[in-house]
Amino acid sequence: MTDTDKPINPKHEKLLKTRGRGRGKDYEPFIKVHEISSSGESVRIRSASVGRVHHLLSRIELLAFLVFDQFEQTIDIREQYPLPINDTLDICSRLGIRHPQIHGGLTVVSTDLLVDLSPRQQLAIAVKSSEELSKARVIEKLQIEKIYWEARGVEWRIFTEKEVSDGLRENLLWIQPYLNPDMTAYQQLGDSDVQDLLHRLKRHPRTKITKLCAKFDDQYQLEPGFHLGLLRHAVAHRFIRGPLNKVFHSWTFGDLSLRGEAFASGVNHAS
C-alpha cells in the first residue's frame, strides 16, 4: 500500500477540524503541551507580541520563541502550525521518501514556529537541536517543510541552540517568568510606573541597574526585588528595550531605550 492510499491517523484527523486555524489571539496550535510526553521541558507562555498563551514543546523552542517575541517587527507567532497533508504527501512522493506516520496512519507535518513580521513578511522556523541534524530521517522531514514553504515564497530557517549566545540565553530565561500565564505581579502597573523607574535610574547613569534597583527597594521601603521585577516585566512585555546579548546584571541606564513615543516623551521631558 502506498502512502497516498493510507488513512490519516484518527487523532490527527480530528484535531485538523479545529486546530491550526486563525491568527493572533484566535489561533489554536495543532499540538498542545498536555498532549505529549516530554522530559518536563514543554511550557506554556504568554507572548508580548500577540498576547495569547503559546504551547512550546522543548527548551530550544522556548528560546526561539522568546527571540522572535522580542522583535519589534513581530506581529504574530503561530506555533505547531500544521501543513496540509495532501501537499506533504505530494512532496514525499516527489522526494521518494516515506510520509510521517504512526501504526500505518499518516501523521500531520507541522512547522514549529510561523512568524509574521511587519511589513508583510513571514518566516517559517524549524527548531531542532544540532545533534538531531545528523539523523537522516530528521533531514528528510525537514526537507518536506523546506519545499512546502519555499514553494509559497516564505523564507524557511532552521533554529538550533547554537543560534543563542550564553548572554542572550541568560537574559531570555531572566524575563521568561514574567510571561508565565499565571504571573500576576506587576499586571496592574501602567506606563507611569515604568516611567517612574526610568526617571530614578536616569539620575545614576553609570551605576549598574541591579545595584540601583536594590537601593530603590530600601529607599522606598518596598519588598526586596520589587524594582528589578518591574524592570524584568517591562523588558519582557516590550515596554523597554534592553541589549539582550549583554547579560542584564551589567546593564546601566544608557543600555536601555524605550519602545513607543509616549514612553520616550515622558522620560525625555521629565524634570
Q: Can you describe what's shown?
A:
It is a single chain. This protein is an alpha+beta fold and 271 residues long. 35% of the residues lie in helices and 17% in strands. It folds into two domains: 3-163, 3-Layer(aba) Sandwich (Trna Endonuclease, Chain: A, domain 1), CATH 3.40.1350; 188-268, Orthogonal Bundle (Arc Repressor Mutant, subunit A). The protein contains nine helices and ten strands. Strands 3-6-7-8 form a four-stranded mixed beta sheet, sandwiched between helices. A two-stranded antiparallel sheet has the order 1-2. Helix 3 (85-95) crosses helix 4. It starts with 9 loop residues before the first helix and ends with a helix.
CATH architecture classification name of the largest domain: 3-Layer(aba) Sandwich
Task: Estimate what percentage of residues fall within beta strands.
Answer: 15-25%
Report on the biggest sheet.
Answer: 4 strands, mixed
Number of helices: 9
Please describe the topology of this protein.
Layout: H1 10-15, E1 43-46, E2 53-56, H2 59-69, E3 74-82, H3 85-95, E4 101-102, E5 105-106, E6 110-117, E7 121-127, H4 136-150, E8 155-159, H5 166-175, H6 191-202, H7 209-219, H8 226-236, E9 240-241, E10 257-258, H9 261-268
Parallel strand pairs: 7-8
Antiparallel strand pairs: 1-2, 3-6, 4-5, 6-7, 9-10
Helix pairs in contact: 3-4
